[in-house]
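## retry 2 of 3
previous attempt timed out at serialization; input unchanged, resubmitting
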Amino acid sequence: MGNKETQAERFEKFLSSVYLRPYSIDSISELTNLTDMADYYRMLPILSHTISNALLDSQESFVRLIKHDPCAVFEAAAKLRHKVLFREALVWVVADWRDPAFREKGGLSNPRLRQVARCVYGEIATMVSRSTSKVLDGFLTPGCTDWLKSFGKGVIDPQSEEHWDGEQEYLTDRLPLSLPKFFRNIVNNDINIDGRTLDPLCLSDLLRNNLVLDQAGRVAGWGDEEDCFLCAEIEDEDLPWDPEEHDW
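## retry succeeded, writing output
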């Protein structure tokens, strides 16, 4: 009996989306079920059109859950051709610097979406490489002892009482370095070496938060996102569908 009620509730929510009645999305499975129903009944464009308000009304129940299963949301958003939701999910699909979601077993079943994720992750990797190179340039400059001290500030949490002596083999027993946290610590320490500012390190773009629906104030390299970059983006022309097509 409970199953039938669940199915009835799902279908009622689907009808609300079709007939422009207010509704909310309370879970990722609810989004995927609605998307599958819209696909079955050939009503994907209608659901895509009405889901925007539902997303805005679902901050607590749905939007903050996207990070926990971004690949499912990413694939549903692609079916719906919903640019805002697609971009939101994309941020989380590639956010984790060590283990991005799209690389997980069973993460993305669609080859085209995997390609999109790989390309965007590659763009972030290029930004990381550029910033790392600039940091090391300063680190390796002869006689630049201030930069060495600042490098330690980036490795060690500035709020801790821990200190790093670059002449000791102290870091060998530490946890692996988190690059998002490392760059965030540099910014939070407001490091300025030999007249250099943060902008030439290209950190402002790398540490930018491109989440739109999630208004929780998440910070790349900090707190729950200390291993994450949140700067993923994609241009309209790179979306895996034709933005000019209105019936599919």
